[in-house]
Amino acid sequence: MSIFVDDDTRVVVQGITGGEGKFHAEQMIEYGTNVVAGAVPGKGGQEAAGVPVYDTVDEAVEAEDADASVIFVPPAFAADAIFEALDTDLDLAVAITEGIPTQDMAKVNKRLSETDTRLLGPNCPGIITPGEAKLGILPGNIFADGNVGLVSRSGTLTYQVVDNLTERGIGQTTAIGIGGDPIIGTSFIDALEAFEADAETDAVVMCGEIGGEDEEEAARFIGEHMDTPVAGFIAGRTAPPGKRMGHAGAIVSGSGTGTAESKIDALNDAGVPVGDTPEEVADHVESFL
Amino acid sequence: MKLHEYQAKSIFADAGIPVPDSRLATTVEKALDAVDEIGYPAAIKAQVHVGGRGKAGGIKIATDREEAEQYADEILGMDLKGYTVDRVLVEAGVDFVDELYVGVTMDRGEGEPVLMVSTEGGVDIEEVAEENPDAIAREHVDPAFGLHPYQARKVVYEAGVDADVALDVASILSTLYDLYEDSDASEIEVNPVMITSDRDVIAADAVMNVDEDALFRQPDLAEMAEESYEDDLERKAGEYGFDYVRLSGNVGIIGNGAGLVMTTLDLVDYYGGKPANFLDIGGGAKADRVANALDMVFSDENVDSVVFNIFGGITRGDEVAKGINEALGQFDEIPKKVVVRLAGTNAEEGMEILNTDLVEVEETLEDAVQRAVKNAEEVTQ
Q: How far apart are the CA of A254 and the nearest CA of chain B, in angstroms?
């Protein structure tokens, strides 16, 4: 089993004729993902990565019966592309694009709340159900099919932790990168809730980082609503206050909120062991299984 | 991107928000000319991108020409939290009876802009927020609709602003919200808004930060951009286009992806070392970018050893290896030991071409970090 994507997911790639869009559409197809179409304004009627391209997402969905979209559209046009996906009533939209203006995302978020579509990202590596489907840019070869769910704000940290798990034979149900921006669609809590409801997921890893209070809220959710054991990791313990560490969200404010310490404390209070290293996270997961 | 007070105030003035009469000056002579035109008392305010200028001695009120000369001379050229003051704003002093705080920012938790008003203006608002959060009235704005004028009035009344100036303050707040939206600001603050004995309302300070991701559609603001680096290394990182933060340790760190680089820093600390920097080469880096990254850490004289941690997704291990070979091939003697850990996309291809005469190789993140920490210890012993 898995959450959000599986064998049946039919994917349209927005921006499939661009460099990244084409490369990763091919990678997704190679992984076995059911990519059925591309959508690029002005490129309707062409073919890219071996699938037909349509001018609009609507047309692509209509013609190919797609139910999910992956968005590889440059930041200036990315919010518009997400709106288009939302207006097509897809089940899932995955926005890979990094650098979308925050006020654009606030408007997207508002619209999102009025639809039934799930949005992942932006500025995320995507989602993978090993052996079934990969929507995004994650390196498929490090993942293995199994019974651990993973949700993370950071792409490369996801790869690192998955590597530590797979190395010792612990596979994954689904791994999700929710993105490092201040305003994102799917939250830790959304993913945790879905993993809790998934009968095949026996343990969950949650990778957070400094900045914001999403991890603290997720910790409260885990304490109150989850029976599935969760192991945690928080990046940025050594980050100085006031400095933006790469991710738009990864900044510790001067007043002490959003620190690694407050996140680790909140998780510990909720009964979640937090690894000092990715290897220790894998130790915790192993002890759950 | 931070704007200077004088830049923000000129934007405020153009939008119709009352601001004090002011002139920008880069020399003591020009500052005196400015005071002669404006009159006394006059505020002389350092224009640098740091908070708490007043407390740090960067803002002084001159009551006569002698004081004006003395303060301008003191402030121009002074070092303010690491930044040299090269210009001051000379501004007409406002005879006020009351001070307010107003601001607009993004509430990331709610995903909506929020208006904030407090009658406890003129002081450190972060302290107020922490010690007495109820002293700040808040109103969220639906980003799709924009601000309704009643919301500005509502939050001003809620904050307890005096009735005779409430509508004027609300009007300033409405204008600030429009500016916030039109200029893709991440934050606009006025602290304080001064109320004079004549019950005039004047924006006596101006903080405006603009979302860097939106500068592509804000050409006028992009032109105002003034990089403020704390040192030459940060300037170099800006030129190379790296996310870079200098830290106080001696283990140089290069990696891809913010989360993984932060994790590498944390592990250096965990294994008893001290990170010298955060350096994210970003996604999909080609060989030249990798070489630039090595140039960056080698330029930091505090660095005693380097760890290179790449987990390829978009980034390809063979490109990274090529960059490392190229950068290190230029040296007769490599200045600092470099430990490399390559994983993910094309890592095997990368390991095959990596010149292992130039670097040490470790397979896991943990081993790579421990080795780099040990290398640094050997240098300092």
A: 9
Q: Is the Cα dihedral B161, B167, B171, B177 positive or negative?
A: positive
Give the residue on A whose Cα is nearest the Cα of B313: A139
Which residues in chain B belong to E strands, given as ranges?
22-25, 42-46, 59-62, 79-80, 83-84, 88-92, 96-107, 112-118, 136-140, 185-196, 201-203, 207-210, 243-246, 251-255, 277-280, 305-312, 337-344, 360-361
Nearest by CB: B265 against A99, A233, A238: A238
A24, A225, A247, A284: the catalytic one is A247
Kindly state the tokens that stand for A248: 């738009």
Q: Give yes or no for a contact between A45 and A62, defined as CB atoms under 8 angstroms apart.
A: no
Residues 6+ apart with CB under 8 A from B326: B287, B288, B290, B291
Query: Who contacts A287 (Cβ-Cβ below 8 Å, separation ≥6)?
Result: none
Q: What is the DSSP string of A44-84?
A: TT-EETTEEEESSHHHHHHHH---EEEE---HHHHHHHHHH
Higher pLDDT, B314 or A131: A131
Residue B375 pLDDT: 97
Residues 324-353 of B with CB under 8 A from A: 343-345
> What is the rounded average pLDDT of the residues A199-224?
96
CB contact under 8 A, A159 and B278: no
Q: Return d(Cα A171, Cα B346) in angstroms, integer.
A: 22
Degrees (nearest 5) of the Cα angle A211, B156, B10?
75
Angle at which helices B258-270 and B365-380 pack, to 10 degrees? 50
Helices (H), A168-229: 188-197, 214-225
Joined tokens for residue B322: 């090529």
Measured in whole angstroms, the distance separating CA B50 from the mean position of its chain's CA atoms is 9
ipTM of the complex: 0.93
Q: Looking at this protein, which amino acid is placed at residue A112?
A: L
The number of C-alpha atoms within 13 Å of B9 and in the hemisphere containing its C-beta is 23
Q: Are B1 and B209 in contact (CB under 8 A)?
A: yes
The residue of A28, A160, A187, A215 whose CB has the most chain B CBs within 10 angstroms, and thus the best one to mutate to test that interface, is A160
Q: Average pLDDT, whole number, for chain A? A: 95
Please report, as a single letter, which amino acid is at residue B86.
Answer: D
A-B C-beta contacts closer than 8 Å: 170
Instruction: Give contacts of A177 with chain B, Cβ < 8 Å.
Output: none
pLDDT at A26 over 90: yes
The whole-angstrom distance between residue A111's C-alpha and the CA centroid of its chain comes to 19
CB A219 within 8 A of CB A256: no
Distance from CA of A158 to the nearest CA of B (A): 8
Task: Compute the distance between CA of residue A249 and CA of residue A98 in angstroms, rounded to an integer.
Answer: 12
Contacts of B184 in chain A (CB under 8 A): 101, 103
Taking 70 as the pLDDT cut, the residues of chain B under it are 227-230
Q: Is A24 a catalytic residue?
A: no
Q: Are the beta carbons of A84 and A14 closer than 8 angstroms? A: yes
As a whole number of angstroms, the distance between CA B169 and CA B201 comes to 7
Percent of chain A topping pLDDT 90 = 90
